[in-house]
Specification:
The complex is a heterodimer of chains A (306) and B (250). Chain A has 306 residues and is an all-alpha fold. Chain A contains 15 helices and two strands. Chain A has a domain of 209 residues. Chain B has a single domain, classed as 3-Layer(aba) Sandwich (Rossmann fold). The longest helix of chain B is centred in the last third of the chain and has 18 residues. The chains are: A mainly alpha (306), B alpha/beta (250). The interface between A and B is medium-sized, with 25 and 42 residues. Chain B: InterPro entries: AAA+_ATPase (IPR003593), ABC_AA/LPS_Transport (IPR051120), ABC_transporter-like_ATP-bd (IPR003439), P-loop_NTPase (IPR027417).
């Protein structure tokens, strides 16, 4: 399994040399979907916090990258900094939103993302969107390849990071919190801390994706990066793939990606079909497609030592 | 080790604790009886930290814990079970106990696995370790509640009707488990129970609660014999039966 994963990664890393810019471009989209879904799943699947507001941190990541690049930092080097910035911004925000749970938490995160969007829109020159500074020094072909490798690294790194978290001491406590927060506290789990860590890490992950998308599109606008549709997408991918599994978000991202490629020519009908798939999976396969069909490639269960 | 100092708690018009004071010493086994709505489970909530009293103070080992989070109190040594079992569904039986061993008892790595395995063996759940906790029968759920509480390595164990809904032989099994845990770990127990027989067989002190007040406190049979307690108990047919049963046993 490990060798297979490394083999796939090497194969994917060679795409800029083999399959060319067209495939490269679509795979950047796929990889950012994988990363997005994986971090949303840490929050919703493992810590039990369903957020509709992760676009807030996509935006913080993108605009953070803008500010850093404006200050002269190389855009690619600035991606991790932008991610860290999103995580730091999430810390004080978590104090407010984590007083809520369930549906109230979901709505609060959405409202918060809207506030972020308005704040950026109302700032000087904010409503028209911005181009990424400091990127023109790169030759287009090299730039695209770098974006591709960053996206691949981000997707693989996100899956690995969430897997390591989920299978360890933290993940077990988070799963307990997600099942029953009161009983978890009564068993000694510091519920607030578990949720805060998940919230800030998921924000940093979203921030990295936001920054990456900016290097890919070279242009960002508050209306698009702060769009709630991103959170709906994350939810669709994680629910269809398998909530609370490491493989689920990857499977969900693949499903969405394939549906999108195959159906986007049919206009709005594609969205109707996507909705139907979401409803069908929720009704007939509530553990997601991976949850029902797949064997864990990245196991998180703790087994008694014999 | 545990002191409740004039704690009061109301939900609207319902008083669940009225200037209630109580102290439990190291190694005590205290039974709590009382009619429905007497404030028994709320009392546990205020000791374990699920519920904040409106007034008064809770002290554990001389330390004020009234404002502390339930998780902190658990780490200090207060373990509890819930009346209606609350297993972490989605986790296996082993993982349910492991999380308590890691977070409540503060063990890590192999030590946490060893503690969880030991507790599972002690509570007769070893064969079910790999089963999802959501797929257990009632007796097993009750055992798991007990196992999870024991895995936090408590010094004070709060048992909320662990025998409720079980058959007589099952009750006897659980009572044996609790007696064994007390003998081994020397822990103090406060035990709420409707099955008065299970209680009187185990505890050496009985408290009767009614309307958020202590109406009886002392040796089990003496408490059951006092007029105030009789009055509370004779209110319901079933409790009166339970009382006669206990007296017959004695």
């Amino acid at each position: 399994m490990r060798y297979f994963a490394v083999f796939v990664l090497v194969l994917l890393a060679s795409v800029p040399y083999t399959l060319g810019p067209g495939v490269e471009q679509s795979l950047v989209t796929l990889f950012s979907l994988v990363a997005m879904a994986t971090w949303w799943n840490l929050l919703a699947g493992f810590a039990g916090l369903t957020s509709f507001g992760q676009q807030a941190y996509l935006g913080v990541g993108a605009y953070g990258l803008y500010v850093l690049a404006l200050a002269g930092v190389d855009p690619f080097a600035a991606i991790p900094l932008a991610a860290a910035l999103a995580g730091v911004v999430a810390l004080p925000v978590s104090v407010a939103v984590l007083r809520l749970s369930g549906g109230q938490f979901a709505v609060a995160t959405w409202v918060l993302a809207e506030i972020f969007r308005l704040a950026v829109t109302l700032s000087p020159g904010g409503d028209t969107g911005v181009s990424l500074p400091g990127i023109s020094g790169y030759m287009p072909l090299l730039r695209q390849a770098l974006v591709y490798w960053c996206a691949l690294g981000l997707a693989a790194g996100s899956v690995l990071a969430v897997w390591l978290l989920a299978r360890g001491r933290y993940g077990l406590a988070a799963r307990a919190v997600s099942a029953d927060p009161d009983a978890a506290a009564a068993s000694g789990v510091r519920v607030a801390r578990i949720r805060r860590v998940a919230y800030c890490l998921a924000a940093a992950g979203a921030g990295a994706v936001g920054a990456l998308l900016f290097t890919h599109t070279l242009y960002v606008q508050p209306g698009s990066i702060f769009n709630v549709q991103y959170s709906v997408l994350m939810m669709f991918m994680v629910l269809t793939g398998g909530l609370g599994t490491v493989e689920g978000p990857v499977a969900g991202a693949l499903i969405f990606f394939v549906l999108q490629q195959a159906l986007s020519a049919h206009g709005p009908w594609y969205l109707v079909l996507l909705g139907a798939v979401g409803v069908a999976v929720t009704l007939f396969a509530p553990r997601g497609l991976w949850g029902h069909l797949g064997r864990p490639l990245f196991p998180i269960a703790h087994l008694r030592e014999t | 080790m545990l002191e409740l100092d004039r704690i009061s708690k109301r939900f609207g018009r319902v008083t669940v604790a009225e200037e209630l004071s109580l102290s439990v010493r190291h190694g005590d086994a205290v039974g709590v009886v009382g009619p429905n709505g007497a404030g028994k489970t709320s009392l546990f909530g205020m000791i374990s930290g699920d519920l904040a009293p409106d007034a008064g103070e809770v002290r554990f080992d001389g330390r004020r814990v009234t404002a502390l989070d339930a998780s902190v109190r658990c780490r200090l040594g207060i373990g509890r079970t819930y009346q209606v079992p609350r297993p972490f569904t989605g986790l296996s039986v082993f993982e349910n106990v492991l999380v308590a061993a890691q977070q409540g008892a503060g063990t890590r790595g192999r030590a946490s696995y060893a503690l969880a395995a030991e507790v599972l063996a002690g509570t007769g759940l070893a064969d079910l370790a790999g089963r999802p906790a959501g797929r257990l029968g009632l007796l097993q759920r009750k055992r798991l509640e007990l196992a999870r509480a024991l895995a936090t390595r408590p010094r004070l164990l709060l048992l909320d009707e662990v025998a409720g809904g079980l058959t007589d032989p099952e009750v006897a099994e659980l009572v044996a488990l609790i007696t064994a845990a007390r003998a081994r770990d020397g822990l103090a127990v406060i035990w709420i129970e409707h099955v008065v027989r299970a209680l009187t067989a185990t505890v050496d002190r009985l408290i009767c609660l009614a309307g958020g007040r202590v109406v009886g406190d002392g040796r089990p049979l003496e408490v059951l014999a006092t007029p105030a307690v009789r009055e509370v108990f004779l209110g319901t047919e079933a409790s009166a039966d339970a009382l006669t049963e206990v007296e017959r046993d004695a």
